[in-house]
Design brief:
Structural class of chain B: alpha/beta
Low-confidence stretches of chain B: 387-396
Largest sheet of chain A: 5 strands, mixed
Shape of chain B: elongated
Largest interface: A-B, 26 and 52 residues
Distance between the termini of chain B: 113 Å
Oligomer: heterodimer
Number of helices of chain B: 18
Strand order of the largest sheet of chain A: 2-1-5-3-4
Largest sheet of chain B: 8 strands, mixed
Order of helices and strands of chain A: EEHHEEE
Strand content of chain B: 15-25%
Number of strands of chain B: 13
Distance between the termini of chain A: 39 Å
Mean pLDDT of chain B: 93
Number of strands of chain A: 5
Mean pLDDT of chain A: 93
């Protein structure tokens, strides 16, 4: 299982959870498992070509998957996938 | 039998060699300087001293010399006229220091002969007392504190993040703080914006912050900029300061600041917050990733709620604003490992800190080698594609 950390803005789409556990051996598979379990997340992350929106960063452990093998990056048992859109808040 | 001062000096001269100012100046100029220890009082030192000299007042010589010199090291002692240094050299010789001489004629002759000297940036007695806990830290010391007093930091926003970071930077004695905020203090701000007070409701936040800082530390000059950051003023604003602390509450301002920090090469200390979570990083222009390397594009508005819409834990602002003040001070004093190339994420609910690697994007449209950096319409860009698509004619 892979732990996927869910940012605050997506938590409503996964029933309020801060993290979810899903199956998959690549980033693409893990995300697909996430979309199947929580269909509302798909539109927020997935671009029309099946990739990811450019405003969404995905980190495997502490590395940006853009610098690894993107969606084909292999995911091992116990890895953590972090979904990270930018936050703008300054406490206004 | 009692000995006169003159007799003491005469016997010291028999034991201790004296070095002429010209000879020492030539050695310093030639990069072959011995360790110069100045034994005068603080007030004399403050008025000027030999370049590179170390200050150990005569009264503390015996107990402090081990911290600055080895017994086999070549040491030249100096004072005002070359008398106290001669007697101090006898003491060091008695302590087993083997290679000690005294500067003939002392600092007075040195200066009179036209040799270079340094005048330290000094702190007043009140400042030495106020910043005593900083001065005691070896990495800061009196020199670092003086540097902070000569530093200028621009704070974008006197809100959740800006309140604690401005207070700590002011307490730390950062000499000039610029505060950019066009908003006024509202009752709903006071749960987290700790620089403001109930009796200043309705006051401009930048003015309210100036008042709080004046009450905290009169050493600090506050420049009030009661305006929004725009393309028209951002370069002039950043150009005036050494570091910019980003406590903005919206994406257009954050991307504008990032681009402007590259244009003016001003280090940018970033933090953002929402509910229980905070992000922080430092963007050192062209020396590390920039904000757009990290987030090439802003999320659409429905994925980027503000603290006003989604809420924020008040104390989260203190943690993240404190981290920003910490990093700003480190950048100013060039010490420690700056939070550059890393995104620190704080989860107040889980009480966890997570660090992600952030690398320079070789294709970064802002700081990449092929980038042509110019301002864009940040408002339209951050509003998403639908907001700036042309309206269909039929709808009109």
């Amino acid at each position: 299982m892979t732990v996927v950390k869910i940012p605050p803005v997506l938590r409503a789409a996964v029933g309020g959870e801060r993290q979810v556990e899903v199956q998959g051996t690549t980033v693409a598979e893990v995300l697909e498992s996430l979309y199947e379990a929580h269909p509302a997340v798909r539109n927020q992350l997935q671009s029309d070509d099946g990739g990811l929106h450019r405003f969404v960063n995905v980190y495997l452990n502490d590395e940006d998957v853009r610098l690894l093998s993107w969606l084909d990056t292999e995911v091992a048992e116990g890895d953590t996938l972090m979904i990270l859109p930018a936050m703008a808040g300054g406490g206004r | 039998m009692a000995r006169s001062y003159q007799e003491l000096l005469a016997s010291a001269r028999e034991r201790i060699g004296e070095v002429e100012a010209r000879e020492l100046a030539d050695r310093i100029a030639g990069g072959d300087a011995p360790l110069v220890v100045d034994v005068r009082e603080q007030s004399e030192w403050d008025e000027g001293h030999l370049p590179g000299a170390v200050h150990v007042p005569r009264g503390h010589l015996e107990n402090r010399i081990a911290g600055v010199a080895r017994p086999d090291q070549e040491i030249v002692l100096t004072c005002a006229a070359g008398h106290r240094s001669l007697l101090a050299a006898v003491t060091l010789a008695d302590m087993g220091f083997e290679n000690v001489t005294s500067l003939a004629g002392g600092f007075t002759r040195w200066k009179h002969n036209g040799h270079d000297y340094a005048v330290p940036r000094t702190l007043s007695p009140a400042q030495r007392s106020r910043y005593a806990r900083h001065i005691t830290i070896p990495e800061v010391g009196e020199e670092g504190q003086a540097k902070l007093l000569d530093s200028k930091v621009l704070l974008i926003g006197a809100g959740g993040l800006g309140s604690p970071s401005a207070l700590y930077l002011a307490a730390a004695g950062v000499g000039t703080l610029g505060i950019v905020d066009d908003d006024v203090v509202d009752a709903s701000n006071l749960q987290r914006q700790i620089i403001h007070t109930t009796d200043r409701l309705g006051t401009l936040k930048a003015e309210s912050a100036k008042q709080a800082i004046a009450d905290l530390n009169p050493d600090v000059r506050v420049d009030v900029h009661a305006e929004r950051v725009t393309q028209d003023n951002v370069l002039d604003l950043l150009g005036e300061y050494d570091v910019v602390v980003d406590g903005a509450d919206n994406f257009p301002t954050r991307y504008l600041l990032s681009d402007a920090s590259l244009m003016t090469r001003t280090p940018l200390v970033h933090a953002s917050i929402l509910r229980f979570e905070g992000h922080a990083s430092v963007f050192l222009p062209y020396d590390g990733p920039c904000y757009r390397c990290l987030f090439p594009e802003p999320p659409p508005p429905d994925m980027a709620p503000s603290c006003g819409e989604a809420g924020v834990l008040g104390v989260l602002c203190g943690v993240m604003g404190g981290i920003q003040a910490n990093e700003a001070i480190k950048v100013l004093l060039e010490m420690g490992d700056i939070l550059a190339g890393r995104l620190l994420m704080y989860d107040a609910l889980g009480m966890t800190f997570t660090e992600l690697k952030v690398r320079r994007d070789p294709d970064c449209p802002a700081c990449g080698p092929d980038a042509t950096l110019e301002f864009r319409d940040y408002e339209a860009w951050c509003a998403g594609p639908s907001a700036h698509a042309p309206e269909p004619a039929a709808v009109r």
